[in-house]
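$ ./design --mode recover --in tokens.txt
reading tokens...
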């Protein structure tokens, strides 16, 4: 089975490259701890290079037709790696995200209503950045990529879209190789070179699958629901409070779960469970009657809302007891 072969080779390539960057190249790009971090020692942030290299293997297993999103992600990886090494102005980074999203969607979807195109570009840019926002706890982003792209691969395979299935299973397997080294205590982080392209691919492949009638447009939103909900709700709450929401902080739900005592491992396990539930709802509801699709999406959304309320209540009690600032 070509998908299994692609998964195995993608895993091995990613595993080897991650190990290389943990050896002689370990100090190439380090994530230094600061007052907003959840780690207390310098950690290499080059794991994303291994993930992307492993994912690229899929092109040789029949996924060549999915090259446009992968090529755009590679371009973002180059910009993001420069940012990891030297730091780039926010305007430069955001400009690269917008150019990549607009170029890819114009190539895939034109002709299209300009307003609809603009909304999709904005959504893709947001997905690109929210993945970066959520890459702040050991095992979290890697596990989300493993589950999310695995769900994409299964949905594509069930509809006979072999190229998409191979591309997504390669991403999932490469993420598993990274996750091997990223579970708590993490030995390596994705870095922007990994989190930015993965967020972009989560959105871009989701749109491509919708465009090719593999799944409805809500499907990728629900598959990556825990990431989408956490980042979006946190941004809105910070904006309403008048905070500088674009600056680093520790207000995400997953960050508060770690700080309240769940720790990195248990927080990751809770998010994995939520991700699996959301992915299952999406897979079960995809390509069904409209009322079934609505029920699937609303069920996943209700579960995420309940989880958010639980964390909010726990955090309010925690801050009262500890006397810490929210």
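writing sequence...
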């Amino acid at each position: 089975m070509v998908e299994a072969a692609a998964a195995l080779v993608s895993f091995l390539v990613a595993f080897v490259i991650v190990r290389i960057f943990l050896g002689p190249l370990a100090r190439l790009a380090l994530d230094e701890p600061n007052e907003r971090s959840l780690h207390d020692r310098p950690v290499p942030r080059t794991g994303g290079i291994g993930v992307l290299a492993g994912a690229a293997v899929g092109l040789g297993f029949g996924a060549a037709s999915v090259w446009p999103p992968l090529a755009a992600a590679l371009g973002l990886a180059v910009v993001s790696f420069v940012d990891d090494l030297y730091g780039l102005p926010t305007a430069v980074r955001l400009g690269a995200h917008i150019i990549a999203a607009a170029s890819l969607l114009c190539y895939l979807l034109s002709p299209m209503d300009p307003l609809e195109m603009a909304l999709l570009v904005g959504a893709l840019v947001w997905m690109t950045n929210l993945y970066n926002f959520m890459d702040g706890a050991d095992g979290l982003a890697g596990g989300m990529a493993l589950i999310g792209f695995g769900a994409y691969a299964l949905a594509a395979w069930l509809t006979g879209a072999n190229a998409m299935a191979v591309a997504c299973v390669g991403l999932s397997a490469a993420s598993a190789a990274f996750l091997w080294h990223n579970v708590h205590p993490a030995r390596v982080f994705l870095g922007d070179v990994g989190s930015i392209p993965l967020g972009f691919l989560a959105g871009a492949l989701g749109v491509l699958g919708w465009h090719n009638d593999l799944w409805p447009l809500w499907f990728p939103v629900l598959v990556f629901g825990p990431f989408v909900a956490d980042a979006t709700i946190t941004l809105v709450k910070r904006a309403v409070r008048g905070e500088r929401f674009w600056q680093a902080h520790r207000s995400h739900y997953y960050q508060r779960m770690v700080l309240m005592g769940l720790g990195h491992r248990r927080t990751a396990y809770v998010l994995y469970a939520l991700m699996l539930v959301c992915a299952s709802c999406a897979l079960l509801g995809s390509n069904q009657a409209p009322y079934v699709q609505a029920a699937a999406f609303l069920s996943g959304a209700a579960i995420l809302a309940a989880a958010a309320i639980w964390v909010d209540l726990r955090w309010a009690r925690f801050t009262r007891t500890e006397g810490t600032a929210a």
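exit 0
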